[in-house]
Design a protein that fits this description.
about 70 residues; mainly alpha; 2 helices; about 40% helix
């Protein structure tokens, strides 16, 4: 994790069920992981997929997504 200072855990998902993922299904999975872990930050790639999923997570959780962050 030394490549990502301040980050202690990264979650990834591997499943045949994710071969054809779509935004809403991933957002629901992410919401359950966020709720269960009590996380307060979610980071996604600034790709069309990330830009589809992150606002959906925000909508499910009644939070505002911040997009196109260049530096933290």
């Amino acid at each position: 994790m030394s490549k990502y200072p301040g980050i202690s855990k990264i979650h990834t998902a591997k499943s045949d069920k994710l071969d054809n993922p779509y935004g809403q299904s991933i957002a629901l999975i992410a919401q359950s992981v966020i709720d269960a872990g009590g996380y307060d930050k979610v980071i996604a790639a600034s790709s069309s997929f990330g830009k589809d999923v992150v606002p959906r997570i925000g909508g499910l959780m009644d939070l505002q997504a911040i997009t196109d962050v260049i530096e933290i």
